[in-house]
## 1
Amino acid sequence: MKRPTKTPRERLRQARVAVYRQHILEAAEAVFAEKGFTAASMQEIGRRAGVSMGTIYSVFRSKEEVLQAALEARGAEILELVRRAVSRPGPAAVAFLDLVRDYVQYFSAHPHFLRMHLRLGAAWMHSPENGAGKRAAVWAEIQRSQAEVLARGIQEGSFVDADPLLLARLFSAVHQTLLANWVEQGMKLPAEQFVGEVERWVKRLLWREPVALATREVTSRQED
Amino acid sequence: MKRPTKTPRERLRQARVAVYRQHILEAAEAVFAEKGFTAASMQEIGRRAGVSMGTIYSVFRSKEEVLQAALEARGAEILELVRRAVSRPGPAAVAFLDLVRDYVQYFSAHPHFLRMHLRLGAAWMHSPENGAGKRAAVWAEIQRSQAEVLARGIQEGSFVDADPLLLARLFSAVHQTLLANWVEQGMKLPAEQFVGEVERWVKRLLWREPVALATREVTSRQED
Amino acid sequence: MKRPTKTPRERLRQARVAVYRQHILEAAEAVFAEKGFTAASMQEIGRRAGVSMGTIYSVFRSKEEVLQAALEARGAEILELVRRAVSRPGPAAVAFLDLVRDYVQYFSAHPHFLRMHLRLGAAWMHSPENGAGKRAAVWAEIQRSQAEVLARGIQEGSFVDADPLLLARLFSAVHQTLLANWVEQGMKLPAEQFVGEVERWVKRLLWREPVALATREVTSRQED
Amino acid sequence: MKRPTKTPRERLRQARVAVYRQHILEAAEAVFAEKGFTAASMQEIGRRAGVSMGTIYSVFRSKEEVLQAALEARGAEILELVRRAVSRPGPAAVAFLDLVRDYVQYFSAHPHFLRMHLRLGAAWMHSPENGAGKRAAVWAEIQRSQAEVLARGIQEGSFVDADPLLLARLFSAVHQTLLANWVEQGMKLPAEQFVGEVERWVKRLLWREPVALATREVTSRQED
DNA sequence: GATGAATGAGCCTTCATTCAT
DNA sequence: GATGAATGAAGGCTCATTCAT
């Protein structure tokens, strides 16, 4: 008969597993980002994580599961950001700008994940076949929640009147392009200024009332 | 150095090889689009193209080369579109809108390629490692040419003042998102109307002077 | 539209595959006999058959399928022997002795199979778990048919009155022990004499009326 | 050379080890019986025995050694039975029937071992390669001792005149088939009656003078 | 002394590439 | 020249064995 409170041994085990999960998923993010899912090898993930094959397989059941976990772990955190934005009182436009800020913060804290997401996102975004459906479950939910805020903004008259899901995709496309550009240049531009730039582009794209933009002065140049 | 006058036999050979190239690359586009590069198998490409493995390897030296050829073949055609836009006299803004129109036409004529490009583009767009550099050679050139038109537009005061390369990327991101959305919904919206919609989004994104937009009436909705 | 008559190419292919099947199954019989199913390696089967891994997997889908094919190929032939015995007119006792003769002939022609069967038979004979059920399908049918002849012999008053299925098992046990002993000693005893010996033991085991036996003179001795 | 007087600590250690041995071997019997040697996993043996891997490896040096120990442990006990039969005064026929009785008793007390023996016996019985020779050491001795009694019976004129080693094998085959059948049906037939049945079959097989048999009334039927 | 987590060699299986026909 | 069968290297995954706690 086991008490609902775990034994110390069990708690230790869970802590250990959690540490491995963390390290393995971080290594996986990097490898998946560089090679893509199929070309990534478990050996390399293990090497980068500093664990053996057996250890990986004691935490995850398969390569596929490693990928799903990597997507879901971050996905869940991001979904949380979106949900907070959705439930924020006040105008949708303000909530959305807050969300943009959260995104920048999150992705700049996890650049490997950003790269993986940029690379693999395309795979399941437009290939309903394969097991892509499963992988994208959280991400579909994220898009749905984003669309929710956008729909509210449309009704409030702040956002351009178009299919909210399309808006969500356009927003993601622009937003990720900017992030990728920023990361690619070593994130030399201070986060605060970068957020400002993203906001400007997002307003251009989504705001109903044309917004005066002076993008130039803060845009980092490719050839810098 | 080959003699400029080819033998009839040689001309026949080249014609034959050209036909194979064509069929193989079309099959490859479809398979790469569905599976990604690594998960795609040469046998499946051969099966879809209706040619044997030997034939594929008589035209291409490796799987990698098939991919490069697929990217370059279309890439060269697209580069041609861009170059025409660059060399077009008159305002850059007009030239760019013409380019947008050409793009829509081209991609809607080659939806398999679009899907492949959407899927694999991310791979070499943000993974400087691997042979990605090689693969992207034409595409870098395309981006450079696009940036050229955009730079001209900036100087003419038509486009928002930002790094032209970034503008090119943002434009591609938005443009491809719209295309993907269109294809995903079975291209039910007439090409003409779709072009109009793309133009409207592009203007929103790039034009310096705020442009009155009434996107709604032509935007196809996800749930249609 | 394909004609029901196969193309020459197709016939060639089938012939080739049949040859591989044959060689692979023979190699598999030997390896499974020596190592058992799990410890047998596909590499070794390939090496002994003189084919590569790829070739094996072009004929069989998995290691499991190689085993099943090996069991079923021989099993089907043996089932045929038993069915002929079942449908033979005249006394069951005579039919059964003919069957014994057929068995000896068959197994002595396929000693590797005999060894494999001796080794793996035990595995699925008493382990209903695993995929043993599938593997043994033909063999259960063989036992059932054997039991049929035996049941007829019981009704005719020739065989000892006991559960026919148990009789079938006892017969198999004795019969295979004799065969194994014979093979182990290099089959030095002429087949004709060996058949006589087997018949004598079978009569001892199954015949209702005690049969005068003078086994000694033909029994090959272990220490010969 | 150890001092004959062990320290109490040493005696405790040995007792502990003996307990582990016992539990591990019992678990091993079950697992080997179900999966076969190679497919059986040390982790499952450990789980079933309720001990850790380290404990298993503190008692045995390898998986192979666990199997050997399992075979030898029971083998030694069975050898003891046979030796008692060999050294029993009076007619060999009587001694042999006593042995049969002992066998039934022993195997019915250790059904897991019976199943393992049925399954793995075939492996080393007819595969002189591998380490099978080592594994079978005790069992060869058992067979030799059985043959000894049988040889005596032959000289006394009680048993059919054939190679005693062959007789021993035939006896084992029949005897194990009956046991397997009995166990398979849940040992519903009382042990006493079952012994009678086995004796009847053994007499049929080995006794020189034909023996009147009325097997039917006690044979449990498969379909009951 | 006991534990069971960690290791990594090894096996089944796939697929890019070659070559006999 | 075209075919597609054959090859075998490489990758995902398991499990016997070891060793830090």
Note: The domain at 67-223 of chain D is CATH 1.10.357.10 (Tetracycline Repressor; domain 2).
## 2
Amino acid sequence: MNISEFAKEAGVSVSAVSRYFNDGYLSDDKRALIEAALERTGYMPSYSARTIRTKVTKLVGVILPKLSSESISRVTEGISEVLSAEGFELLLVNTANDYKREITSLELFRQNRVDGVILLASVFTDTHRALLSKMRVPTVIVGQQLKGFNCVCHNDLGAAYSMTKLMLDKGAKRPAFIGANQDDVAAGRDRRRGFEKAVTEAGITVDPKMCEIAKFSMDSGYEKAKLLLSGRKKPDCIFCATDNIAAGVMQYCRETDISIPGDLMIGGVGDSRMGKVLYVPLSSVHLHYKTAGREGANMLLSEMKSGSEVHRILQLEYDIVERESTKRG
Amino acid sequence: MNISEFAKEAGVSVSAVSRYFNDGYLSDDKRALIEAALERTGYMPSYSARTIRTKVTKLVGVILPKLSSESISRVTEGISEVLSAEGFELLLVNTANDYKREITSLELFRQNRVDGVILLASVFTDTHRALLSKMRVPTVIVGQQLKGFNCVCHNDLGAAYSMTKLMLDKGAKRPAFIGANQDDVAAGRDRRRGFEKAVTEAGITVDPKMCEIAKFSMDSGYEKAKLLLSGRKKPDCIFCATDNIAAGVMQYCRETDISIPGDLMIGGVGDSRMGKVLYVPLSSVHLHYKTAGREGANMLLSEMKSGSEVHRILQLEYDIVERESTKRG
DNA sequence: CTGAAAGCGCTAACAA
DNA sequence: TTGTTAGCGCTTTCAG
């Protein structure tokens, strides 16, 4: 059933029906007539027909690298909360860590189909940048800071610095690092820099042999821990760029009877649910993921309303959460 | 730029352009002309205009109760994997455990906007059922079994039965249960029935005082564990309807020095990542969440293709994963 | 193989 | 307030 059939059924004109659904002027009689017919028929206007006229889709494209990650799903939850309150739906693209799909989705969203885009990417290539600057819909990047674009990000450097400093202040002398892909500026590069800053400030020289790069997984953390802890110079603390990596390290320590925090302190980032229930509860840095999602959505919302081209960067702070894994002395 | 402007730019007719994008007949010359113009202009056809004619949105609505749950995100990942391979995008609605939003989203999807719907709900009311039978687009329910509708579900009863039996076979005599909301047929009712079946079969009478209902959270598991373990009749094993609940129980045991599995065996359901790294690794039942998502998507796909009205129910089996928390003798 | 033209269902300008 | 009507950008007959 379309609007004119429905109008006939209701005994009113098409414009009356259109006005009913668009807060237009309408007398109470007509309104009642329409509501009665609505009850009878269950008519609903077609979104696409509306979109073709108004150019408004009430859809926001969300591009993310994976779904089954605690941090990403928290961000998405924040996004969803704010946008759905404003009547937007999420058009979700899970790129499964495939850069190409990030590009094709951006391409897909570039022209039409959505009113705005939120991008949660880990690595930005030149292709990303080129495409992003050609976007014709408002776009916000969450979780990374990219000059010249709207971003909501975390203070990754500060988070890593504080966590490392915490362990150093407790007397650690041989700090080690297990980080993430350095092409990922936030979780990779900045967290490494934070670690290095704290170490250097403590008057210790950063030893490249004490630094490993892992994948975002427990297994990878386990492997890197084995590498670091079976060398001759043994670390007395390990800063891990994510809680997942830290959990892997802990697994290894458990199997090899390395006592935590006695022999080795461990610190992570992300304050995941898992960290709290590990066999030694994990000290970590709480990052405000859900808030990042909310703020990203708010930024997008105001961008969509104003249509302005001012770029803004919002950096969220962090909280140190100390648990047993660093509780020495 | 619209199709006719673009056609002019390319020096071909509107229909040629349309055919280019729709695998229609087209000579190589025109094809080349169009591709050249595409390069120049970056033109992309409008989805809504296409939809208004073809009635095809290439969108699937996915309704879920929350995002930040390991099981749900794994299901969603499976859905996304299959559907995106077929060129569909996901229109995601996070109802935040609000039944009303489930209803309004179903309502929203009922008529148009999406080509199909996948529903991950925990509780079905009469309103759900009424709305579901009025859906005009193919719909599949994942994670629950609802008579008369397309479902992909788990063998929740069997999973609970096997986990409980495992503990009973190891000599447990005073089994306890911490379950979920009984209105949730899968995670609530069926898992309870599975527990009861195993207990009864072992010649033990199910003691209602040994059964508690928790929320889907660690904290709630902790509280219920306190209740069960501070009574005078102390359980020697607890079957928990979810790993999260089990993690809470374990927290309590750790604080009160109850030894696992010596004093108490614990079994969960879901085989979450967390279970593996708990201070006592948790025995659990692996449910094939990602597969459930994939199969749900496949079912929807074939439903959308055939337009048939045959209802199918697919039940996936489970795997027991035994870890330390039940390793006795 | 090609192009002209008739809609798809809706909104909004315009005239009443 | 109301109703009529001209498009929005596209697909798809239909006649060539």
Note: Chain A touches chain B through 46 residues (CB under 8 Å).
